[in-house]
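Input record (one chain):
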Amino acid sequence: DALQPHISQETVQYHYGKHHAGYVRKLNAVAATNPAVAGAKLEDLVVSADGKVFNLAAQIWNHTFYWNSMSPEGGRAPSGAIADAITRDFGSFEEFQKQFTGTACGHFGSGWVW
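The corresponding structure, as predicted from the sequence alone:
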């Protein structure tokens, strides 16, 4: 419940226990019969694979990024090199948030925008 009220426990359980776990299970099934997939890093599959393997690898990567981005103390402006890059490219963290949110809300499909 640490992420409430922003993300409910039910949402986390659904995305982790069903979506993410399902993608991992399906990619592992492919890897069991395909040595090239079994021996590849996830990031390499996202870059070089196509079709089902790409889709599964990309969704695993997306969900992993999502989990690694969460924190009950999150939501603050970044610092250091990432803050400098955001200011350079967007003018301010607030402008980055505005553009990111606008892209996410206007994106057809799942809403992944990173």
